[in-house]
Amino acid sequence: MKYDPGTRFFDEMFSAPGQVRPHYEGVEAYIQRLGIAEFERRRHLLDAAFRNQGITFTVYGDTQGTERTFPFDPVPRIIPASEWAHVEAGLTQRVRALNAFLTDIYSGAQILADGVIPPELVFTSAHFRREVHGVVPPGGVFIHVVGTDLIRNEQGEYLVLEDNLRSPSGVSYLLANRQAMTRIYPGMFEGQGVRPVQQYATALLANLQAVSPKPGGTVVVLTPGMYNSAYFEHAYLAQQMGVELVEGRDLFVDAGRVWMRTTGGRRQVDVIYRRIDDDFLDPLAFRRDSSLGVSGLMEVYRQGRVAIANAVGTGVADDKAVYAYVPDMIRYYLNEEPLLNNVPTYLGWNPDHLEFMLANAGDLVFKGVGEAGGYGMLIGPAATQKDIDAYLQKVRLEPREFIAQPVVGLSRHPTLYPDTGTFEGSHIDLRPYVLFGQDVTIVPGGLTRVALTRGSLVVNSSQGGGSKDTWVLEDTAAAAAHEAVRAAQQSQNQSQSQSQSQSQGQSQGQVQDMLSPSGDGPARSYQQQLEKEQLEAAPEQARTPEAGEEPAGQAEQAGEDR
């Protein structure tokens, strides 16, 4: 595999030119055996499968059209078990602290009284909802689904870039990537011990049902509708969970309950997995011009007769200014040191920080605290002085709405570029998905986003990014145990096949002759034919993707984070 990892950035696959990291050796050998031409041919099949199944995303305001097939690179990102254990522990710690923070600020706000976080930072957040102060959601769970964005710096350390707690999107790509890879490149997985991810929908449904106000409650997915950029994902998750996909017009409030219109009459709804932002949920409580929500929904929610996931008001915890205080939350609520560090962050509302931000704008990355999807950013080193001056005018006018961070050299990963047919290093990040409830469930892997524009550090799909399949490997002992079980099962199946091919009237001596290494009996011929058929079928299976229900559709409107 011809590839130059360079020396400036941490490379995920190579420690030095020609030196493959141990957990990538199997994949590198597979690519070598397959050859670039065949690898590229199968990538075209993969693109066609995504296109035929509607795995697209939307870029709003693009004059060339909004619907695009989501780019995918088939060289997987691999995380060894020991590395993942650290990430998993850090995410679990972080989500527990964030849920404790939300519980606190919507009740006694003790963390503010103790001076750990400035009160004005919370109360001036656009996503702080006074309408739900004092409301404790079912089970005390505010953040049922979390998508935390991680990066690796030049030293290979995992850092938290931001937390997405409102409506984190993109999990459909995670599932689609894995399903497509196992169809188009099945041989790549052999002997790797890759942990599965397809159980996500089952785990999500269980997590939602656990917060239902009554046993066996009805769960629905609330979507803004088919023109939303993440609509495919909404429909896919509803289908996978076996629940109804609804729009606001499909629901109504009566007698202190939320009901769904069906062809068989009305049906009570107990849990709403909403994919719209707070502002649009209830025109009587928030935006009066919203036609996406349900009138009277917030009153039913306050009475505890319906659960909303994620809970109303969670956005204050993914405000990019509040993000800077998450390590302090961990120390305050859990009495622990953070396992995953933040990227150093300067806050516009702090006069000292603001002065530094304005003086060093050419060396920093600026972000709007409420923006997502790569919008509202200024990358100082890549910007012109004119762009910097224009951006800083906005910062001076509303300093609370901006943060700045030093430029972090995101880790790179080999990526196949179609225009050259060669592997080049592209910057990546990782969005794992966390389900929070009585227990914490983390999908082993996540969505690896890749900056396909050469030299770019922006991985968002709206800015030209794509994705990769993310593998988390089982630990060595577990992988060895599974391999032993698989080998035993294979041996047993072969024995059964041999036994079934023997005539009931044959003697024991005849059977032994048939099974002897030098024998040419029916069982041996059958086994040879079976092996021949499997060998002939395997390449065709590898090249021909099935039509299936791959998910898609990550992008944002109000509340969708990408």
UniProtKB/TrEMBL annotation:
Pfam families: CP_ATPgrasp_2. Residues 482-512, 550-562 have a biased composition (Low complexity). Residues 76-451 form the Circularly permuted ATP-grasp type domain. Residues 482-562 are annotated as: Disordered. It comes from the Bacteria. Gene3D superfamilies: 3.30.1490.270, 3.40.50.11290. This is Circularly permuted ATP-grasp type 2 domain-containing protein.
